[in-house]
TrEMBL record:
Function comment: NAD-dependent protein deacetylase.
Family assignment from sequence similarity: Belongs to the sirtuin family. Class I subfamily.
Residues annotated to bind Zn(2+): C162, C167, C187
GO cellular-component term (any): nucleus
Protein name: NAD-dependent protein deacetylase
EC top class named in words: transferase
């Protein structure tokens, strides 16, 4: 059916099932409307939902952007299909592609973006309820979010543990960066060594406990840099109250309702920017950095945000190089005494 028919069907179903839109909270469905809502003082609990698009300006590719996304650039790993690199069953048999990629993308070489610091500003202003991130690059932490502020739904590269029941030693990021994949597997027998979530694995339990308390009390949902294609993360957009405004800052529109029938199956509540019944969702099509700067400007926070980015980036730049070396030289010995060092050759395990 065409758009008009879909809108008609939607509103018919809404009325029939009593799913009428909630109360209109924003004066207007625009970034200006969002800014004046934040300034009104009624918006005390902001939740951010973010994905790979918030880190692309730091130099980390996203997954699905045509041409530049990671999934379009994995040919040299000879994967059966791109997502296999993060598929747990594939990884157990072929860990090499993941570890090779991990070395390329390992935290430490990237700086948080303006968007990351905008989220930090929400925290500093006392209105950030929580940031739900799908990213494993740790840039939210580097930007100043602390444990309680952040749910790393797909895990993190910040910590790595050997999952061997005889070991479970924590490994530093610097060590992991240099680790040889085959050493890792030998150390842990069959289980991988890392703290990130693969497809086919459960999300951290903290994700599920937090969403129960956070989302029903959300006053504003800010969604940035995500294609909203991966569940269960994507479905979080439907967990805020019916009248809670949701703003998407992204290069493309995502998370829209595809089929009203999906709503009947329990996957409803997708974003609605354009239908006649749209009443709370705002889209700002731009880079995350530009969108955050535009919002900061409307809020009168622009100079403060620019200053924060400048100060934090300068602090990162001036970090003592010798400190990095010290981290890199930290003990790398696994408690599995039979394991050779990370420099062991592949042939040692064949
Ligand atoms: P995707 O690559 O699927 O989506 C990134 C989104 O950000 C796209 O909609 C881009 O258009 C947009 N984008 C890219 N750069 C941007 C920029 N500078 N400013 C604004 N928007 C930009 O990444 P995710 O949605 O994060 O899962 O992917 C979700 C999950 O799929 C990942 O966590 C990962 C992946 O497979 C696992 O590894 C388990």
């Amino acid at each position: 059916p065409g758009d008009t028919e879909m809108d008609f069907l939607r509103s018919l179903f809404s009325r029939t099932l009593g799913l009428s839109p909630g109360e209109k909270v924003l004066d207007e469905l625009s970034l200006e409307g969002v800014a004046s809502y934040i300034q009104s003082g009624k918006c005390k609990n902001v939740i951010c939902m973010v994905g790979a698009g918030i880190s692309t300006s730091a130099g980390i590719p996203d997954f699905r952007s045509p041409g530049t996304g990671l999934y379009a650039n994995l040919q040299h790993y000879n994967l059966p299909y791109p997502e296999a690199i993060f598929q747990i069953d594939y990884f157990k048999k072929h860990p090499e592609p993941f570890f090779a990629l991990a070395r390329e993308l390992y935290p430490g070489q990237f700086k948080p973006t303006l968007c990351h610091y905008f989220i930090r500003m929400l925290k500093d202003k006392g209105i950030l309820k929580r940031c739900y991130s799908q990213n494993i690059d740790t840039l939210e932490r580097v930007a100043g979010l602390e444990g309680e502020d952040l749910i790393e739904a797909h895990g993190t590269f910040h910590t790595s543990h050997c999952v061997s029941q005889f070991c479970s030693k924590e490994y530093s990021m610097a060590w992991m960066k240099g680790a040889h994949p085959h050493f890792t597997l030998r150390c842990t027998q069959t289980a991988p060594l890392r703290d990130i979530v693969f497809f086919g694995e459960n999300l951290p339990s903290r994700f599920f406990t937090s969403i129960k308390n956070d989302f029903p009390n959300c006053d504003l949902l800010i969604i940035m840099g995500t294609s909203l294609q991966v569940q269960p993360f994507a479905s979080l957009v439907s967990r805020v109250p019916k009248n809670c405004p949701r703003v998407l800052i992204n290069m493309e529109k995502t998370g829209q309702v595809q089929l009203f029938a999906a709503g009947l199956l329990g996957f409803g509540g997708g974003l609605d920017f354009d239908s006649d019944g749209a009443y709370r969702d705002v889209v700002y099509l731009s880079t995350c950095d530009d969108g955050c700067m535009a919002l900061a400007d409307l809020l009168g926070w622009k100079a403060e945000l620019e200053e924060l980015v400048k100060r934090e980036h300068a602090a990162i730049d001036s970090k003592d190089a010798s400190k990095k070396d010290a981290t890199a030289n930290q003990s790398s010995e696994c408690s599995d005494k039979s394991s050779p060092g990370p420099e062991a050759r592949k042939s040692d395990y064949q």
